[in-house]
Amino acid sequence: MKKKILLLLLCLVVAAAHAQLRPNMAYQTYINEYKDLAIAQMKRYRIPASITLAQGLLESRAGLSELARKSNNHFGIKCHGWTGATAYADDDASQECFRAYPTVYDSYEDHSKFLSQQPRYRQLFSLAPTDYRGWARGLKSCGYATSPTYAQSLINIIELYELNRFDKAKSYDEFIVNHTSKVKSQQGPLHPITIYNKNYYIIARPADTWKSIGKEIGISWRKIAKYNERDKHDKITPGEIIYLKKKRTKAEKKFKKYYHTVKAGESMYSIAQLYGIRLKSLYSINRLSPDFQIYVGARLKVY
């Protein structure tokens, strides 16, 4: 009987462990948002991008913690030796002092300097840049966190989301990195930025305006409206694709021999937005006049 009970308990423990290792959409969104910033920091400071991302995910709850949202502190670094802005939150003790940053970029930069400039972490930099397990265990042994499971938690996150693939990255997207250096504290998560057809876009949310998007991205809101071939006073509909740079004259090359079949509710403009091309170019590619009346079933070239 005792053996059966022990076996049952063991099964429950194993099941719980596996349940905690399921992919989380908030985590994946965070990774998409900050992977380029983590790679950029790795190139400058030799800290594995996988470690930086895993720590950011764990310490900030994928950017959703109050400390991350209001003070841009993504790594739980406290005020020791700090002369900048501060914030207070409960941690090991009540209302401890934490560092506060103008932007997420500043948090990542300070995290890199915190590790690279303190003697107690010096031994970590002798490890191979792909040795994320060594880094995770080293951070724990050097006293970065008090949790006894800290190292394994980092390793679990890295392996579940395959973050170690970023440790071999040769380059990063400078536009995305520059974006994080301009955005101030937010009360909610940022719009995920997607790369498409050599451009960048976000998906509009309720209450978005050209001004609010411009403020978040750090680009003139008038320019963003112009990039999307819209009047700066137009209202934005939730779910719209909003491009952040001037659109191209053709779709991606994979659509070279492709025809788009018009569906109910689509317009020439919505199709142009879908493929990231200029409306004028869509008419030109298909040798259509601006007064062409689109209809369901029409076949349009996009390249």
Plain-language structure description:
- This protein is mostly helical.
- Helices cover 44% and strands 8% of the residues.
- It contains twelve helices and seven strands.
- The strands form three sheets. It has a three-stranded antiparallel β-sheet, covered by helices on one side. A two-stranded antiparallel sheet has the order 1-2.
- It starts with a helix and ends with a strand.
What Rg is obtained from the alpha carbons, in whole angstroms?
A: 24 Å
Strand content: 5-15%
Percent of residues in helices comes to: 40-55%
User: How would a crystallographer describe the biggest sheet?
Assistant: 3 strands, antiparallel
Mean pLDDT: 91
Q: How far apart are the termini? A: 70 Å
Q: Please work out how many helical segments DSSP would assign.
A: 12
Number of strands: 7
In the sheet with the most strands, the strands line up as: 3-4-5
Sketch the topology as an H/E string, one letter per element: HHHHEEHHHHEEHHEEHHE
Weakly predicted, low-confidence segments: 1-19
Present the secondary structure layout.
Layout: H1 2-20, H2 25-45, H3 49-60, H4 66-71, E1 86-89, E2 96-99, H5 104-117, H6 132-141, H7 150-161, H8 174-182, E3 194-196, E4 199-203, H9 210-217, H10 221-227, E5 241-243, E6 259-261, H11 268-275, H12 279-285, E7 299-301
Antiparallel strand pairs: 1-2, 3-4, 4-5, 6-7
Helix pairs in contact: 2-3, 2-5, 2-8, 3-7, 6-7, 9-10, 11-12
